[in-house]
Amino acid sequence: MGSKRHSQRVSEVVIRTRADGARELRVNGVFVMDDVETSSERRLAELVLERGARDVLVGGLGLGFTTRRLLEDTDVRRVLVAELHPAVVESSDIEDPRAEVVVGDVRTVLAEQPDASFDAVLLDVDNGPDFLVHDANAGLYEPTGVADAVRVLRPGGTLAVWSMADSPALRDALAEHLEDVQAEAVPVRLQRRDEAYWVLTGRRSPGDIVRA
Ligand SMILES: C[S@@+](CC[C@H](N)C(=O)[O-])C[C@H]1O[C@@H](n2cnc3c(N)ncnc32)[C@H](O)[C@@H]1O
């Protein structure tokens, strides 16, 4: 897996194995995720694989479940991952020539990409607009942030956003720039309770004209 350092912030990132055997990621003491229930992270990838995505930009490496699910598909050509924290990248075991991880903010990485260069953009950098771990991520869920992701989508391409809860505001932001906006509840089992996480999607109009 290729990797380059893009920018640095001082944060305490801890990836540890808990007493129950689960791997856990924490940033500045805040729980981000573990590897116990990862169906929604993998579903994020599956939603765009079902639509035939071949070139995919992923915001947020985390423990790598979304990225590995993409790479399981032999039709996938390229996965570019933007991950804020170098320690998260350093702890990753993903080895695949189709995958490149850039250490940096996904907004910066998006801004560097040419217009219409991906079939899908997957954002799983935070818990969704209403439960932010990083306040600086708020803009990603707003219409301007959505527009930045849409710019790099090919016509017909999909933006998919992981969220802890459904969000009417995020649906509206997606609908400002995309067609066919949907929110899918992904059933998850959390501490012996049945709950749901969400993946919100929208498609760039297949008729959009991209200027060369
Ligand atoms: C919930 S985890 C992603 C989980 C991932 N989908 C998986 O399958 O393991 C969120 C990740 O996004 C990273 N992150 C947070 N804000 C970011 C940003 N603005 N740009 C890039 N990565 C970011 C965090 O450091 C963390 O690794």
TrEMBL record:
The UniProt GO MF terms for this protein read:
S-adenosylmethionine-dependent methyltransferase activity
Domain (Methyltransferase type) spans: 60-160
Q: Which UniProt keywords apply?
A: Methyltransferase, Polyamine biosynthesis, Transferase
One Gene Ontology term of the biological-process aspect is:
polyamine biosynthetic process
Keyword Transferase, does the record have it?
Answer: yes
Give the protein name, as stated in the record.
Methyltransferase domain-containing protein
